[in-house]
Write a structure and sequence with these properties.
alpha+beta; 13 strands; 5-stranded antiparallel beta sheet; MetI-like fold
Length: 556
């Protein structure tokens, strides 16, 4: 009888529930750490140069063939399952071991990856002369370097080919940067100016202000731009001639020779001969490329800088929009509105809005902001652009406003709770000293409630930065040709579509035609998205803590 009484008293004390809560929190932390650890290992390890292997294996018909590539994964299948899949298993075999090899050379073989059975491998080695060529299209090439050509003439072969190729590729990359600068900056600015002149001409015609003076002015400006355009086209033509002049002669595992123009090559390296320092340098180059370059190969190669820029820009604009509206709504509900049935109903509606699925906000943003509001803005202010929409199409502005609407309830609730925690004696003391209600609110109450406002903003940023579903409807695209911010007036183009890290993960992970090649990039992008969210939140947390310390004395 003593033990049941002790157990009953133990439950009444509340200790079991404390341990249960501790266990639940511990389980959640373990799962979060495990997920982040998996993303960290897979994402960071993607950029480390792996060794290239040469396999001699036996085909089903008995022929011995050679395969060159990177060992990516190993699959162990039980014998019974392997037999059901059509594999022949010996009596003493309990499992079927297969290697996933990244063979590249997609332009030759039609696939980037291949499975081979371990028991069929006759020989496995790592020759020093195996070469990896990162290309701008068709993925990696694996093979051997035969020679380097300039304008079709042989300039280096044998052992001298690799150093000569590296020098030529370094020169080609410099030329590529010059081409990119001319095309994106100079020629892009001219095309933008020509388009603005076209719109100005159409606007003057619609307003019946198109006369001889306006025609001559616009014609003169177009002529100047055309002169500059032709000058840049000549420069680009010369640069393209330089970059298309050289090529590499390579050999596949089957002995087939392939000539690869330097214009299609990003870098070459021989991983089996690289020292630890060389691998670290290569790793750093890949990380920098990932953070600063544009994507290529259907987003499965290259960098993700446009997605980083779009994510940060959208979150900043969302924060600028949601903070004043959320604070004003909370101030009115707490400080000015008469507390009654209607106020309680509004608070219930605000709390319910926080639970609405995000895709509903996306549909609302598309229907109201894009089609109705944006369409009317185009009719009123941009009739010359018709029928092409300006603001009547998804873009950065509508995406930011949609996410601001989505996160508005969080900011309202957090701010209102902060206002409720401020003692009424502070308000009364300020009013007793002669301050008006507005002065009391602006100079005393709001500064003391600013930590709560920042808490709401932190929660809003954390949710908005990771949203994908509504953004697919109101502005995010797979690949944006230009950034929303550039050197052309008005510099910040709110009507442009943009890229987003969350959508980039979805696109690469689920819409890529080459899933195996895209999988490592999914982990790397997911890790970067987590880091971006953490960085944005940490900035807000630092500001909140500083405000909290500043006004702690007043709260006391």
């Amino acid at each position: 009888m003593i033990k049941p009484i002790m157990i009953k008293a133990w439950f009444k004390s509340g200790t079991p529930w404390i341990w249960l809560n501790a266990a639940a929190v511990s389980a959640c932390l373990i799962m979060v750490v495990a997920v982040l650890g998996l993303v960290l290992v897979r994402g960071v390890g993607h950029f480390w140069p792996s060794g290239v292997l040469e396999f001699s294996y036996q085909e089903k018909d008995g022929q011995i063939k050679t395969l060159i590539g990177e060992h990516v994964d190993t699959s162990i299948t039980p014998a019974a399952m392997a037999k059901s899949n059509g594999y022949t298993m010996a009596d003493n075999e309990d499992t079927l071991v297969q290697y996933l090899i990244k063979v590249g050379n997609r332009d030759i073989t039609g696939t980037d990856f291949r499975w081979i059975v371990e028991r069929d491998i006759k020989q496995q080695q790592s020759p020093d002369d195996l070469l990896v060529v990162e290309r701008r299209e068709w993925g990696n090439f694996y093979g051997r370097l035969v020679a380097v050509k300039e304008g079709g003439k042989l300039i280096a072969e044998g052992s001298a080919a690799f150093p000569a190729a590296q020098d030529r590729i370094a020169q080609a990359l410099v030329v590529f940067k010059q081409i990119a600068h001319l095309e994106k900056k100079e020629v892009g600015a001219i095309n933008y100016s020509l388009d603005q002149l076209r719109l100005e001409q159409k606007r003057l015609q619609l307003e019946n202000r198109w006369d001889t003076a306006a025609e001559q002015r616009i014609a003169a400006e177009k002529a100047e731009l055309e002169i500059d355009y032709k000058k840049y086209q000549i420069q680009l033509s010369e640069l393209y001639k330089q970059i298309r002049r050289d090529s590499l002669v390579t050999k596949t595992e089957s002995g087939t020779e392939l000539e690869i123009p330097l214009a299609k090559i990003v870098r070459i390296f021989q991983p089996n001969t690289m020292s630890l320092i060389d691998k670290i340098c290569h790793y750093g180059e890949k990380i920098i490329e990932f953070l600063t370059d544009d994507p290529r190969e259907a987003n499965t190669e290259g960098g993700i800088f446009p997605a980083i820029f779009g994510t940060v820009m959208m979150v900043i604009m969302m924060s600028i929009i949601v903070t004043p509206f959320g604070v004003i709504a909370a101030v009115y509900l707490r400080e000015y509105a008469k507390q009654g049935f209607l106020t309680r109903l509004i608070r219930i509606a605000v709390n319910n809005l926080a639970g609405v699925p995000s895709i509903v906000y996306g549909v609302f943003g598309l229907g109201f902001f894009v089609y109705i509001l944006g369409g009317n803005i185009d009719q009123l202010f941009f009739p010359e652009s018709s029928p092409a929409p300006v603001y009547g199409t998804p873009g950065l502005l509508w995406a930011s406003i949609t996410l601001a609407l989505l996160t508005l309830p969080v900011v309202i609730v957090s701010t209102e709770e902060g206002l409720a925690r401020i003692p009424s004696s502070i308000r009364e003391g300020s009013l007793a000293l002669g301050a008006t209600k507005l002065e009391t609110l602006w100079l005393t109450v709001l500064p003391m409630a600013s930590p709560a406002m920042m808490t709401g903003l932190i929660l809003a940023v954390a949710r908005a930065a990771g949203e994908v579903a509504p953004l697919m409807l109101v502005g995010v695209v797979k690949l944006a040709p230009t950034l929303p911010l550039d050197g052309n007036y008005p510099f910040l183009h709110l009507d442009r579509k943009f890229m987003h890290l969350g959508f980039h993960i979805y696109d690469v992970g689920f819409q890529s035609p080459n899933v195996e090649a895209a999988r490592p990039l999914v982990y790397a992008t997911a890790l970067l998205l987590v880091l971006v969210i953490v960085g944005l939140n940490m900035s807000a947390i630092i500001i909140r803590n500083n405000l909290r310390e500043k006004y702690r004395a007043l709260e006391g």
